[in-house]
Amino acid sequence: MKANETVSNSTTSDITAKRHTRLEYRKVLDGRKQPIRGLWQRGERFYARLKVEDASGKAVVRRIPLVDESGNPWRTVPQAVAALRKLEVQREDNKLPTFGQTPKFSDYVESYFDYYKQVKDAKRASTLLRERGPLKEWKKHLDGIRLHRIKKAHVNSFIAKRQAIGMSARTVNLDVIALRNVLKKAIDDGYLTTLPTQNLRPLKTTTKKRDLVTMSQINLLCEKAVGVSQNGQQFSDYVRLMAYCGSRRDETLRLKWSDVDWQNKQLVIGSDGLAKNHKPRRVDFNPTLEIHLREMASRRAPDSEWMFPSPQRGDKDIHAKTFRESLTLARNAADLPRLGFHDCRHHFISLCVMSGIDYMTIAEWVGHQDGGILIGKVYGHLAGSHKKQQAQKVNFQPVLLDQAAE
User: Fold this and answer.
1) N or C end of the chain: smaller count of CB under 10 Å?
2) Neighbours of 246 (CB within 10 A)
3) How many domains does the chain have?
4) Which of 362, 391, 222 is closest to 292 using CA atoms?
């Protein structure tokens, strides 16, 4: 077999760009443009098409995903060919594993989590943690059902059940997304060919308008925190920083002093690649942000590179994991039970909108990838009073212009 074996009809990048529901199994060609018997590709994954025995001993033709010992798919044609030949030898020696029935959904969910625990950077641990709750409910609902038996009716009945107990449309949509992620993996593994959620429309959701948190409320929260929390000063710096630059809760905790570009007057957020969209962004200093950063720098812990080092770090230099306890104490003391960390980000975006800053610039600062569309949809209403003020400036009596023309 030649090393320059290629895949027919499409380049790897073309295949990657397609969605799961549109991908097809394609024969793999060798260097002479001849199909390699028994080797197929779907997306970037290779499959062996072999006649094997199922759990009952009946001969069936199956597509078997070609993976290494850790469960990672082979990525090149030579590797896939070698894996195929190994399976063929095992079959001839009667050492090929028995390929049983399609696994039950509940069992496959566990293998889904095990896979992503082993594969680095495929999915964040926080993402897998968020999926566990919805998938636990799906396991109850699909108890005993095998993957290929899941129908759209099962999905619709789950949606109805969740709504009946008062779950919001947004929560139910996230539940369905979690299911879809598992089933996409099942397609990759050769257990499914289509998604039962195909063409399923998400439930309509209504975005609740947040009350604008004022700077006086944020200041009150911070003042109370200093009095009731052992980490009150650090909590205060944390809350004010989010209110002055619009950063998210967790990405703010991970900020280092090296992320402050004093020369260009910018704060780099997400330099570790762990931001929501995996891309770093730069927030230009506004006067209040710069003053706050310089005040924080004057209180910087000399033994830490983090802006918010963990109070319990000991000999290890690690950042704080959460300020949730301090928030609870400060909210109770300030009588602001609904004020949360995300309200600080909302405060920043709202003030930017009301200051007349263009939506695209705001979107770049806060890490939106839509060029400001979401800013306009969610926050555009805040500029209503400013629009009314501007409307009063419209002049329908251009007297001076008429005189100048004469």
Assistant:
1) C
2) 24
3) 3
4) 222
Q: Is there a domain that residue 7 lies in? A: no
Q: For the whole model, what pTM was predicted?
A: 0.60
Count CA within 13 A, CB hemisphere, residue 323.
30
CA distance 232 to 270: 25
Facing residues of 29 across strands? 35
What's at 300, amino acid-wise? R
Q: Does residue 209 lie in a domain region? A: no
Three-state DSSP class for 116? helix
Query: Six-digit token pair at 322?
Result: 């959460």
Q: What's the pLDDT tens digit per position in 25-69?
A: 899 998 888 999 999 998 889 999 888 766 455 777 888 888 887
- Amino acid code (one letter) for 316: K
Q: Write the burial class of residue 402 (CB in 10 Å: 0-12 exposed, 13-18 middle, 19+ buried).
A: exposed
Find all residues with CB under 8 Å of 139, minimum gap 6, and list them: 105, 106, 109
Is the pLDDT reported for residue 343 higher than 60?
yes
Report residue 80 as tokens: 């896939």
Range of the domain at 297: 215-389
In a domain, 99, yes or no: no
- Residue 63's contacts (CB-CB under 8 Å, 6 or more residues apart) are 25, 40, 47, 48, 49, 190
End-to-end Cα spacing for the chain: 89
Domain shared by 61 and 164, yes or no: no
Q: Are residues 374 and 277 in the same domain?
A: yes
The answer to whether residues 47 and 66 touch, using CB atoms and an 8 Å cutoff, is yes
